[in-house]
Each structure stands twice: as C-alpha cells, then as structure tokens.
Amino acid sequence: MKIACVGGGPAGLYLSILLKRQDPGHEITVHERNPAGSTYGWGVTYWASLLDKLEAGDPESARAVRENSVRWSDGVAHVGDRTTTHHGDEGFGIGRGRLLDLLAERARSLGVRVEFEDEVADGAALPEADLVVACDGVRSGVRERHAVQFGTETVFGRNRYIWLGTTKVFEAFTFAFVETPHGWIWCYAYGFGDDRSTCVVECSPETWTGLGLDRADEAEGLARLEELFVKLLDGHRLIGRATAGGSAQWLTFRTLTNRTWSHGNVVLLGDAAHTTHYSIGAGTTLALEDAIALADALGGRTGSGAASGQTELAPALAAYEKVRKAELLSVQSAARHSAQWYENLPRYIDLPPAQMFALLGQRHSPLLPYVPPQLYYRLDRAAGRLESLRRLKRWLGPKLARTLHGSGTRS
Questions:
Q1: Going residue by residue through the chain (411 aa), what tens digit of pLDDT does each one get?
Q2: Rounded CA gap, 151 and 158, in Å?
Q3: What whole-number distance in Å separates Cα of residue 268 and Cα of residue 251?
C-alpha cells in the first residue's frame, strides 16, 4: 500500500514503524510541516503499561524510549504551606522532542520517508495514496476539510492553562496550589530529563483576569508566575517555548470528538480523532495506542499489493474505530471528571492535606461530584477494607457514568 501520514507526531511516526515492520513493501511517507527539531512542548508522561505495548510492537524503539526517560514513583502535593506525599505507581517522563527524534530515526531506518517542512494543509495537495492518515493534531486541517462527514464536535473547558518548562528538576510528580486574592492557581510539574521539567499552570478565568495574566506579555506573565510559585521553583526560572519562535499561550482545553473516524481513504489518529484532558497525562499514550490498533487492523485485513489493500481498507478502518472507541470510554470519562474536579477546586481545597490529596487521586470518579467530599473520603477508606463496599462502588460508578452520559453530559 501507498500510505501518507499527515503530521510527524508520535502517533504518525509510530504507525509508520509498525506498518513497515509488518510489510516492508508498504510505501510510507510522513509529511511534517515544521522543520526538524522545532517541536513545541516540553516533556510528556506515560506509565509502565505503555512500555509493555511498545515492546510488543517494536522492541528497538521501546528500548530507546525507555533509556531516554526519567522515572518517578511518588506524588507530592503542596497546598499553601502544607505538603503531603503519596507513594504510588511508577511513572515516566520523556522530552517530546527527544521522543520524536527517536521515532523518526527508527522510522527512517526501516525505509519510511520522513519529510520535514512539507505543508499539507488539508490533504488536497497529497500525492495519490491508498490511505491518508490524519495525525496532524487537534486543529487537523485534513479533518476539518471533511468535518461534516466526520461529525466533529468541540467543547471548550472553563479553566485557563499554559504549558511551560523549567530548569528545576522534579523527582516526583508534583502538584502545587497557591492561594491569591483572586482565587487559587496551581501547577502540575514533572521531570523529563537531567536538567528540565514540565510545568503546566492552570487557574479559573476569574483568577486569570484578576492577576492580570490576560493582559501580560510572555515575559511579564512568566515573571508573575515565578513570584507565585517561588517556593516550588526554588530560584529556578520558567521558560515559555521549547524552541525559538512564537511564545507560550494561555489556552482553554478543547475536548474533541468525532462521530466517525474514517471517510473514504482518510482515517483519523491521535488528537485529530479525540482529545482527553491533560490532567490525566494520557494524551501521548492514547495516540500511540491508536497507532497500535490501526496497525493491527490493517495488518489483519489487508493482503499484499495495492489492489488487495484497497479492497480490504474499509473493514479494517471500521474495526480500528470500533476497538479504540470502546477502549476510550473509561479514559474519556476519567478525563472529563478530572477536568471538572479542578474546575470545582474550592469544594476540596480546604480539606485536611491527606484527605485533599486522597480525593485528588480519586478525581476520576463519577461518584465524587455527588457525594460530600468528607463523606466520600470516609466511604472510600471503608471500601478499602470491606469487599461489599468495593463491589458497590465498582457497580455504582459506571452505572452513574452511563446515566449521565445518556442524559447529555459532555464527552
């Protein structure tokens, strides 16, 4: 098959690796509009289960990703002058630029053409291909060209956030909540290398405007944030963009969904197909899992040669979509409730530190918004000791989530 991947992010690059390993005869080109090494963003997170899947798909790239990642197993929350620590699951961080370099190098070694500064705004200028993979992100031009056919819907969150870097190296996944005269502002920080960490700052729109962050230029905004998080940063600076050009922007999160993920020979992958709130740290993992599922579907339903591939393309794309939509249901629910937890932060912020951090860890629960926080905490502690309560919680949570989803709750 002749395959064109529009977008040189992790999903498109990893898909090209998997498909080339399946059939070296595939002619695959990755079209990336930006110059090599000019990626935006800082570090990305993932968990140990992803490494197992990468190992099964391509041991060589999995080994490279593992060797270039940092690890943590603790979570730390600072709420004003109070601090609490939770010992949890092992997590990993890797620089987004480093991840892309590793995957691009591996793809090229297998015979994939990776073309940088190759603008394909909407797919119309693509060379003729049996399959066009739209992996060009949440603002996908290829998807927007067929937005009606895909049934694209976007819902904007309430809070404002900005994606930053810092020279402070965090050895644990760290949350910091700071109270201001205009409300709370907080950040999520985690290391991804020997000398860098990611620092995502979030606040309500009222706090954002009250602090003047809506009117500040990048330098003024970073200086204000450094003042607010001075204890956390320990003298280190915040950095706006990982590469030259442009500036870090305050955004509102877009929850994007599509009624269908394929149209003709065009299929959506990663953020072009769906987004999940950054507070659950799953975006890169989900994009790579999309690539694995699409490669599996294509490998199981396409034969050798273009004619056979074209004949079997539609059922392969349908199978991919069915599998991934089913797997995403619980993740999307968790992301939706996580975002709402932060949008309703005053409900939880004054709890004792241990309780607040425990409910921070439970923010994915569909039950939590409907149960008084301290009561939920006590019930959750009791459920940890009593099997009957654990069974009730496992039954009631998904039932409530389905009921809310069916009555029009956003997804």
A1: 999 999 999 999 999 999 999 999 999 999 998 888 777 779 999 999 999 999 999 999 999 999 999 999 999 999 999 999 888 778 999 999 999 999 999 999 999 999 998 877 655 676 689 999 999 999 999 999 899 999 999 999 999 999 999 999 999 999 999 999 999 999 999 999 999 999 999 999 999 999 999 999 999 999 999 999 999 999 999 999 755 456 889 999 999 999 999 999 999 999 999 999 999 999 999 999 999 999 999 997 644 444 344 547 999 999 999 999 999 999 999 999 999 999 999 999 999 988 998 999 999 988 899 899 999 998 888 876 555 445 555 545 555 444 444 444 333
A2: 23
A3: 23
Q: Which two structure tokens, joined as six digits, stand for 194?
A: 């020997």
SS3 44: strand
Q: Is 309 left (phi over 0), alpha (psi -120 to 50) or beta?
A: alpha
